[in-house]
Amino acid sequence: MKMISLGLVIFALIAAFTPRAYAQDAATQGELDKLSGQIQDVQDALAAQDKRIETLEKKISDLQDKVNTPAGNDYASTDDLKKLAEQVQEIDKKRQEDNQKILDTLEKIGKGGGGGAGVDLRHSPDVSTGPTTGTGTSAANTGGPQQGYEYTILAGNTLSAIAKAYRAQGVKVSVSQILAANPGLSANNLIVGKKIFIPAPQ
Structurally, what CATH architecture does the domain formed by 121-199 represent? Predict the structure, then answer.
């Protein structure tokens, strides 16, 4: 019964975050799918443990019946009951650990879809010191160099996470603006170590 309610809570949380996950790029969606798969694996493990607990509880019940039955030599010893109780405690401990894994995974999903980790603006010009001058397709349209920032792509970065990090620093930039300022850049194939230009919209 607890397993059913836990499953409902998990699916409700996943459903709540699905619209935002679809709004992110393909890399973020892939990471979300991976996390969903990990949640499913943990759920399957919990279901298997529930079955084992039910089997052990039945054995304990049968042994208690034997103890209470004044039959000849067909009875369970105290040691038998103690061993079964220890097994139940071990399985319950494992279930609690799996529950914590589920909560940690859901927390990752809730904090940004689980993708784009490792955005580090310390390797880029400090946002607080003002933008630098760069070139991009939009710069040609304005007839002069465009103001912005240079960012070096790190492992695990996505354009949506990079844009979000700059917006958190007060630079209101979108993924489409980053793509427009970096001709040939693919949101689905970011190259680690490559420097890209982050435009600072006027």
Answer: Roll (3.10)
How far apart are the C-alpha atoms of 94 and 92, rounded to whole Å? 5
- The answer to pTM > 0.90 is no
For the record, the structure tokens of 58 come out as: 């039945």
Strand partners, 134: 146
Q: Where are the domains of the chain?
A: 2-110, 121-199
pLDDT tens digits for 143-189?
456 788 999 999 889 898 999 999 888 888 999 999 999 999 988 88
Look-up: residue for tokens 């979300």? Answer: 32
pLDDT tens, residue by residue, 98-109 = 878 777 766 665
- 134 neighbors 178 (Cβ within 8 angstroms): no
E strands, the chain, where?
132-134, 146-152, 195-199
Give the phi and the psi of residue 113 in degrees, each rounded to 5: 80, 5
